Amino acid sequence: MKNIYHSDIYKFEKPVNSYWEDTTKENFNLNKLTKDINSEVAIIGGGYTGLLCAINLIENYNLDVILLEAGKVGWGASSRNGGFCAFPPIKTNFKNLQKIYGKDETKKFFRNSVEGSNYTKSIIQNYNIDCEVTGDCNFILAHHPNKFKQIREQAEIYKSEFSIETEVYSKEEFNNIGHTGTEQYGALSYKPGFAINPLKFVNGIARYALSKKLKIYDHTLVSKIEKNNNSYTLITSEGSVNTKKIVVATNGFYQEGLVPQMNSRILPVISNIIVTRKLSKNEIDLHNFKTYSPIMNTKNLLYYYRKLPDNRILFGTRGDFIGSDQSNFNRSKKMEKFFKNIFPDWSKISIDYSWRGFIAMSQKLTPSIGKIENEEIYYGFGYHGVGVSTAPWTGKQLSKLVFSSNSKDLNISKIYKGLPKKFIFPRLRVFYFRLAVLFYIIKDRLNI
Questions:
Q1: Which of 133, 296, 386, 446 is 20 to 30 Å from 377 at the Cα level?
Q2: 64-73 per-position pLDDT tens digit
Q3: What is the extent of the structural domain holding 413?
Q4: What is the pLDDT of residue 157?
Q5: CB under 8 Å to 54, separation ≥6 — which residues?
């Protein structure tokens, strides 16, 4: 199985050196799979999607489930993301969705997106997870004066078309409730929305799953799937799982070659995050940074950031194109410049953490949930950077699909359903993305 990026980003044996890992200590003492076992359902991937699919299969359908994770629980994006519970999970706009799928399906898609955000909140409450929930909305920030009209129109359509609670703030109003800075020209807020510690969230889900007797094997990379009449065998380095049904819940860390029908359809895009040292109240006040709600700006290559409970600032944006540790370091230095250009009064503030992970994109520009034709193999991926609200909900939908074996029984917007198209000349996927980034850089410089 050939990976798209440098091997440094696929080091399953150790967690990424992030702020979350440094401040969250939990050891489940799980075992690596070292024998041959059987199950009704085998799930590949121990993040939000895989864990919630497993929990729902056990609780609602009483199925025997095995979960295999290549690293530790939540090793991928589930423990690395910025903790933004936002929506919708798309890299296009609602107008394009309406052109392709129609108004009714688009409205249903947005309803499902809101359901996802609310489902994440219900998991936190029902599983009693302490994951540092902050904020009560999401902000979209106009980074240039000519973007304010755009967000005002977006707020109105969210409200009128999709019944989403929104509010618009002028630059002066947001100065008072949000923050100041060189790229702040007003904002819109929408609900539901909040922020979390993503590692504490995934650990809380895993703790609940283990209490329901889910069998989890970590540091167990599936290298091959073999089909034998009406069952499958998942091959790992020291053991195997014989199963009737498979769920692939690996998102951006999907290993090309594992399921032929899924190959060449996912574009993993690196996203980088930096976190500052703790800021004093006086330092926070230099930019009047009041809100704890997550913020994304209107750039095509957007910046996303938030104030953490201990008064650090988390700042993220597009990562590098290589995936090596060195390219990660180089990108973090550029991001520090971006951050300090926006917040010049923090020019002397040092950066304590930098790390990266994958966002899973596809040609659909929306998530994909479904079943491989003529196989008992199921998938959920392509959250486009909005996994905190989308991945747990996807896991729940997948459980229904696995139980019924029929996608027609899944009552969700058809925008989610089915595989995206394959990339033409898939080895050039990163090159295609480089071209797209160049195009977006030009648009951002022209503020269009």
A1: 386
A2: 999 999 999 9
A3: 7-438
A4: 95
A5: 41, 43, 65, 67, 209, 214, 395, 399
